[in-house]
Amino acid sequence: MNNFGTRELDVVVVGAGQAGLSSAYHLRRSGLEPDRDFVVLDHAPRAGGAWQYRWPSLTYGKVHGMHALPGMELAGADPGRPSSAVIGEYFDAYERRFDLRVHRPVEVSAVREGHEGRLLVETSEGTYATRTLISATGTWDRPFWPRYPGQEIFRGRQLHTADYPGPGEFSGQRVIVVGGGASGTQHLMEIADVAAATFWVTRRPPVFREGPFGEDEGRAAVALVEERVRQGLPPRSVVSVTGLPLTEAVRDARERGVLDRIEMFDRITPTGVAWDDGRTVDADVILWATGFRAAVEHLTPLRLREPGGGIKLDGTQVVRDERIHLVGYGPSASTIGANRAGRAAVRSLKRLLDRTGDPEPAPVAV
User: Fold this and answer.
1) Environment class of 186 (CB within 10 Å of its CB; exposed 0-12, middle 13-18, buried 19+)
2) Does the pLDDT value for residue 366 go beyond 60?
3) In the β-sheet with 272-274, what is the strand arrangement from edge to edge?
4) For residues 59 and 80, is the Cβ–Cβ distance under 8 A?
5) Whole-structure pTM value
6) Cα separations (Å) of 51 from 58, 65, 118, 260?
């Protein structure tokens, strides 16, 4: 439904997860006013970003490295409550405290070149003509499903981490979990307690990280991801270069054989999976914990991708178009990275706006 004609703004923020809210906070601090100078658009039905879709058994105590949004700590959370509820409530309180006025649910279908240097943001509530854009859409909406021969003839159930309901639905079943990341190990450790059997299949041997992981290690890991983005390659997740933390729960699962990895199968059969050397495994469920890709399809009309398949960035700024910043993309996909990237993007955009447009109002305290 088109609720208005084309509205002109200085900044449109697409997405209200950690990266989008951090960006909105810094826009407010810079003196820009919601619904007058900028707008935050979110397609989700309520506050919480991708966290609102996490499975109920992922309690807040199991979340690794949730960094508070700028200006407001998350304090006193019950570690036994679902992370979807804890973080959803926190994001909702944050939006209200800083009066960010997020528009939801609003679908952004495309961003195109407009007139007089503006970008046209086409949405389910109308079109915005904006001088600049912060795309903070994350990855949750683009689950990655690998393709293997025979996938369409499997008679059991196939699902992705994005649809994972928790361990209860797998009671008494034989479950193959595909993927060597954090989600795959979490799924396995839960499902193994109720399933008839579990099998862990990965393309590469998983790497478990022992010892402390401090700021120096974190910076080194982010630098590796950032280098790919600088080269215009599709970003990899930070965990892909940090390895999996060897917690007590993981140690116990390894000792019990839950995390005994099998190399990737060659094809899928009606009743399970098979390898070319003759091995087979029968299964009722294949759970694809194979990660996500950046949700940037709305930017397709602008042709921002490089020959390597990614979008080249200088910090958060798209190299091909200084009006556009990607926050929560590649090296800024972590919660602390999203906060820093939101601040950096706003500083850069403010310089651009001040250089090319009308004087901005004085900064306000939030």
Assistant:
1) buried
2) no
3) 267-269, 272-274, 280-282
4) yes
5) 0.87
6) 10, 14, 32, 29
Bridge partners, residue 129, by sequence: 8, 120
Residues 105, 46: contact at Cβ < 8 Å? Answer: no
Residue 146 vs residues 281, 286, 287: alpha-carbon distances, Å: 19, 12, 12
**What is the distance between the alpha carbons of residues 290 and 288, in angstroms, rounded to a whole number?**
5
| Number of neighbours of residue 203 by Cβ within 10 angstroms | 11
What is 261-302 written as a DSSP string?
EEEPPSEEETTEEE-TTS-EEE-SEEEE---B----GGGGGG
The DSSP call for residue 139 is S
Query: What is the phi-psi region of residue 162: left when phi exceeds 0, alpha when psi lies from -120 to 50, beta otherwise?
Result: alpha
| CA distance linking residue 343 with residue 345, whole number of Å | 6
Q: Please answer whether residues 339 and 18 qualify as being in contact, where contact means their C-beta atoms are separated by less than 8 angstroms.
A: yes
- Is residue 75 pLDDT above 90, yes or no? no
CA atoms within 13 Å, Cβ hemisphere of 336? 9
Q: What is the pLDDT of residues 93-143, one digit of tens each?
A: 999 999 999 999 999 999 999 999 999 999 999 999 999 999 999 999 999
Q: Which residue has the tokens 């390597």?
A: 308
